[in-house]
Structures are given as structure tokens and as C-alpha cells.
Amino acid sequence: QSTWGVYVPCIYVLNKIDQISIQELDIIYKIPHCVPISAHNKWNFDDLLEKLWEYLDLIRIYTKPKGQLPDYSQPVVLRSEHCTVEDFCNKIHKTIMKEYKYALVWGTSAKHRPQNCGKEHLLHDEDVIQIIKK
């Protein structure tokens, strides 16, 4: 933070890479915070999406209804600084914590598969969670 305000990270999206040489593209790739794309040819959109997730510091949490397979089609998206089980529950609905008993978590944040977790447990990107109510 400076005396002028808050620093907000940005990404420079440089379009029309289909109209430059490979040598010029190599130079552009060395520029910090830049993602070269071709909107017309839909080139490099995956890199842009990856960079957006990285800069916005987002994580995806998947839900698993009891007795069913995890739903990988619609993750709950959280900021990585707000990624406890309680944050997840509040993102879905504010009343869930009133009935919360514990959560079963699968993924890199869990030591066991599944792990019985309390509301303070920190979730990682692409964890799967099942909420058990009282």
C-alpha cells in the first residue's frame, strides 16, 4: 500500500498475437503480468483463465450430497483468504452453521479420506466437502 492508495494487481491482455512473429511473441511472454491472446482465433484463452484464477486468488470447492458422487459441474468459488469450512457454509446459506455438526472433506487439505472436520478447517483448491447437520 502506498500513500496514493491501495495497489490492485492487474493483468495486461495483449490481443492479435496471430499477427506477429514467434520472436515477437517470445519477447511479449517475458513481460510481467501480460497474457498474449488472439481473440479472433481463440488462442491462449486457457493461459488467460489460469492467470485470472491465480491473480484473483480463487479456489474451487466441490459439494458431495450424502450417498451420491461429488458434483464437479458447479464448484463453490471462494477467495483463498476466506476458505474455512465455515466460510464455505456461509457462502451457500447463512443458516447452515446453525444446524452444522461436522464436515467430511476429501482432497489435499485432508489427512484422511474422508476427514471429519470442524468449522475452522482450511480448505484447499478442488477439495470435496459433505456437510453433516445435527
Concise description?
The chain has 134 residues and is α/β, with parallel strands linked by helices. The chain has helices spanning 22-29, 45-56, 85-92, 96-99; strands at residues 12-14, 34-36, 58-63, 71-79, 100-106, 115-117, 127-133.
Give a verbal description of the structure.
- This protein has four helices and seven strands.
- The radius of gyration is 20 Å and the shape is elongated.
- It is of the alpha/beta class and 134 residues long.
- Helix 1 (22-29) links the parallel strand 1 (12-14) and strand 2.
- The strands form two sheets. It has a five-stranded mixed β-sheet with strand order 4-3-7-5-6.
